[in-house]
Amino acid sequence: MASKLQQLQTKAVQASKFVAKHGCSYYKQQLEQNKQHIVQPPTVEKCQELSKQLFYTRLASIPGRYDAFWKELEGVKQIWRNRQELKVEDLGVAALFGIELYAWFCFGEIAGRGFTFTGYYV
Q1: One Pfam family for this entry, by name (predicted)?
Q2: Rounded to an integer, what distance in angstroms lies between the CA atom of residue 45 and that of residue 56?
Q3: Residue-by-residue DSSP string for 70-120
Q4: Same domain, residue pair 2 and 29
């Protein structure tokens, strides 16, 4: 266990040195590549204005997303009404989708606890 901790510590030091050496140039490169997205002048007031624009734009998009949700729900209802005509492949895709949702739920629970596993003794 101590050797693994030492290895982890060594790798952390190496990563820290790499970031210290190359971090500034990477930062400048990213700014240069994405300069078309930078608003001039980059001030706190401009950031607050953009934040408000984003919030109200998202708020304005709710009716469209609401309509899309009900259309999607109507499609699911139609499939449910015609469930006798479903093929095995369709049922398999639905089952995999359900399993994936459950897995994301479990991962979210673990992440919410700070990546700790409760109830298990290792």
Answers
A1: ATP-synt_G
A2: 17
A3: HHHHHHHHHHHHTGGG--HHHHHHHHHHHHHHHHHHHHHHHHHTTS---S-
A4: yes
Residue 103: both structure tokens together: 């897995």
Q: pLDDT tens for residues 27-63?
A: 999 999 999 998 888 899 999 999 999 999 999 999 9
Contact by Cβ (8 Å): 2, 13: no
For the entire predicted model, the pTM comes to 0.47
Residues 80 and 64 in one domain: yes
Alpha carbons 60 and 72: distance in angstroms, whole number: 20
Name the domain count of the chain.
Answer: 3
Q: Are residues 54 and 81 in the same domain?
A: yes
Domain span at 29? 1-38
